[in-house]
C-alpha cells in the first residue's frame, strides 16, 4: 500500500464486512495512489472532510461517491469508512440517483458510519445500514437476464464460465449479451469476472495466509497475477492492512433484493 500519512500503517477500526455485492471497512487514515476498480466506491470521512481525486478532478467533501471504473485516489489523515458496491448492487444504483450527494446526506453517512465504528459492531447493524442505502431511491432495476447472469457467476466454481456459455444461459447471442451487460452494469464482462476473483480472494483471505495458496484458491493464474490485480484495483495488498494487527473478515448473508426487472 502506498501510504504518505504520518501513520505509516493505518489501523483497522472495524472488521472487513463482506457480502455478495460489496464490502465495508473503516481505517484510522488512508493515502493511496491512483487506482481503478470495478466496484463503485463510497468514501466517507468520519471526523472531517476527505480529499478524493477522480478522473483528474479533485473533490473535498465529507462523503464522495465514485462510479465503477473511474480512476481515483483518496487522502484522509483522519478515520475514513470505505464501502465498495458491485455494479449490480442495489445500494450503488440507489446512491447514484443522489449525485451529487447533498450536504445533509453526506453528514448522515458520516454520523451513521462513525457510530457503527465506535460500538461493538455486529453484522445485523451493517445489514441494516445497507438496507437504508438501498431504500434512498428507487432506480430502474437490472434486466433480469443480466442480474441472473451476475448471480450465476458469483456461485460458479473456477474456471469461470465463458461469455458464450453465460450468453447462451441468458438466451441471448454473445454480441447482444456483451452489449447488454455493459449497458446495464457499466463494466465489461471480462472486468466483472476479474472483480469477482478479487472478491473471492477477500472472502478467503486471513492474516498470515500464504499468497500463493490464496491466488490458486481465488482463481488467479499465480501469485504475481493476484498481486498485480490487487495493486491495480486497490493500490494495496492484504498484507498492507495486516501489519501489527489482526484482520477479521466477517461474511454477511444479505439478500440480493430489488436487483431485477421482468424481461419483456
Give structural attributes.
264 residues, alpha+beta, 2 domains, six-stranded mixed beta sheet, 10 helices, 12 strands
Please outline the helices and strands.
Elements: E1 16-19, E2 22-27, E3 30-31, E4 40-45, E5 50-54, E6 57-61, E7 63-66, E8 72-76, E9 80-85, H1 90-96, H2 103-117, H3 123-134, E10 142-143, H4 144-155, H5 163-170, H6 174-185, H7 189-204, H8 211-218, H9 223-234, H10 238-242, E11 249-251, E12 260-261
Parallel strand pairs: 1-11, 10-12
Antiparallel strand pairs: 1-2, 2-9, 3-8, 4-7, 4-9, 5-6, 5-8
Named CATH architecture of the largest domain: Sandwich
Structural class: alpha+beta
Main beta sheet, described?
6 strands, mixed
CATH superfamily of the largest domain: Jelly Rolls
CATH topology of the largest domain: Jelly Rolls
Mean pLDDT across the residues is 87
- Strand tally is 12
Question: Could you list the spans in which at least 5 consecutive residues all have pLDDT below 50?
Answer: 1-7, 258-264
What fraction, in percent, of the residue positions are helical? 40-55%
Q: What does the overall shape look like? A: globular
Number of helices: 10
Quickly name the level 1 CATH class of the largest domain: Mainly Beta
**Lateral strand order in the biggest sheet:** 7-4-9-2-1-11
What's the structural domain tally? Answer: 2
Q: What is the terminal-to-terminal distance?
A: 47 Å
